[in-house]
Amino acid sequence: MKKLLSLIAIAAFGLTTAFAQTPATAPAAKAKTVAKKEVKTTTAPVKAGVKQEAKKVETKTTTTAAKVKADGTPDMRFKENKAKAVTKVAGPTKKDGTADMRYKANKAAAKKN
After folding, report:
1. In a structure prediction context, what are the per-residue pLDDT tens digits for the chain, which is 113 residues long?
2. Among 26, 36, 40, 108, which residue's beta carbon has the most beta carbons within 10 A?
3. DSSP code of 65?
């Protein structure tokens, strides 16, 4: 029984790989022709007495010192963002440096943020 199942599996694998490598000829026969349209633009003649004003387009580039991710949160891989993230805790702290929320001073500071 195992030999029969393994032969069927090998045959199925062989057939799928054989048909997977043949190129499809049907879509190539139905190639659509694309017609190109030419668009001509004409410019109005400029009168001698009329002065054309060139408009300046100002582009403002804002460079922020803080690098941000796509979602707008600061990217903590950069040194300047790590320095900004350090905050002083109002009340007592735990061993790891985080605020101990059992104290009233820390609860009030957490509500402000």
Report:
1. 989 999 999 988 888 877 766 566 655 545 555 566 676 666 666 666 655 565 665 655 555 556 899 998 889 898 888 887 777 777 888 998 888 899 988 888 888 76
2. 108
3. S
Unique residue bearing structure tokens 């032969």: 7
User: Tokens standing for 9?
Assistant: 């599996």
Contacts 24+ apart (CB under 8 A), 81-84: none
What tokens appear for 33 in the block? 């022709």
Q: What is d(CA 22, CA 24) in angstroms, rounded to the nearest whole number?
A: 7
For tokens 């009340």, the residue is 91
Q: Rounded to an integer, what is the distance from CA 63 to the centroid of its chain?
A: 20
List Cα–Cα distances, 43 to 5, 25, 46, 51, in angstroms: 77, 48, 9, 16
